[in-house]
Design goal:
Number of strands: 10
Low-confidence stretches: none
Radius of gyration: 20 Å
Order of helices and strands: EEHEEHHEEHEEHHEHEHHHH
Shape: globular
Distance between the termini: 36 Å
Mean pLDDT: 94
Largest sheet: 6 strands, mixed
CATH class of the largest domain: Alpha Beta
Length: 267
């Protein structure tokens, strides 16, 4: 379906079985993150944040690339402004940072389904997701340095996924890594044959969607909160979280069902 301008929408959404699938839909531009696509993603994340029916989110792409990063043609047009684009660039990177952090702050787990190239802010998008499944044909890079633009914002997510020396190598050489190395380093969880990618991603999404949603939401929030704390503070915080979780009606039912060797009757 086209939007009001006659063009296909930059982002598509499909819902099934508690899983919302968002598809980046700018194949001719290699799904580059234009202002419009960033805004569309943000709007969906804002809606998902209060969507109790959705248990898992999958991000995938149409065309021959997962995401080629920011839209360089759009960025170049901003240079014509009297400030040479300073205000535009500052706003753009703030908009992108808000979108990326929204993924971490969503109550639902988010899975990237990566079928092909993910570079610069596209690699950042993969790294920002809670989990990722990649095709054997996928490649990952933060290669802005090749055109004189160090991938400083993608670096934030990347260095929270893979060891520092490997991240620094990728950032300073502009080289790409294949899916197998990305899995070894921790950027992706699973690698699948291209023809099995959608099925493998769906299986992971359905496994997570089958758990008690309130527990997963509590756990995701605590997962990121404790990561920023000292060891003692992390244990104190997660102890409080688990105590509150134990008091939930559905958690009590889950424990009782386990002890009684039956399926839980969750509300």
């Amino acid at each position: 379906m086209a939007d009001g301008t006659g063009e296909a929408p930059a982002l598509l959404r499909e819902d099934a079985g508690g899983v919302a699938t968002l598809t980046l839909n700018r194949p001719a531009q290699l799904n580059a993150l234009s202002e419009a696509l960033l805004a569309a993603l943000q709007a969906e994340f804002d809606a998902l944040a209060v969507d109790a029916a959705t248990k898992v989110v999958v991000i995938r792409s149409a065309g021959r690339a997962f995401c080629a990063g920011h839209d360089l043609r759009e960025m170049e047009r901003a240079r014509a402004a009297p400030d040479r684009g300073r205000a535009y660039f500052t706003s753009l990177f703030a908009q992108c940072a808000r979108m990326m952090t929204s993924i971490t702050r969503l109550p639902q787990p988010v899975i990237a389904e990566v079928h092909a190239l993910a570079t610069a802010a596209g690699c950042q998008l993969v790294a920002s997701c809670d989990m990722a499944v990649a095709s054997r044909e996928a490649k990952f890079g933060v290669n802005g340095v090749n055109i004189g633009l160090f991938c400083s914002t993608p670096m934030v997510a990347l260095t929270r996924n893979i060891p520092a020396k490997h991240a620094f190598e990728m950032l300073t050489t502009g080289g790409f890594i294949d899916a197998e190395r990305a899995e070894r380093l921790g950027l992706v969880n699973r690698v699948a044959a291209p023809e099995d990618l959608a099925q493998e991603t769906r299986a992971l999404a359905e496994t997570v969607a089958g758990k008690l949603a309130s527990a997963v939401r509590i756990g995701k929030r605590a997962f990121y909160e404790q990561a920023e704390m000292s060891l003692d503070a992390a244990y104190a915080h997660t102890g409080r979280v688990m105590a509150e979780n134990m008091l939930h009606r559905d958690t009590a039912e889950g424990v009782a069902a386990f002890l009684e060797k039956r399926r839980p009757d969750w509300s």
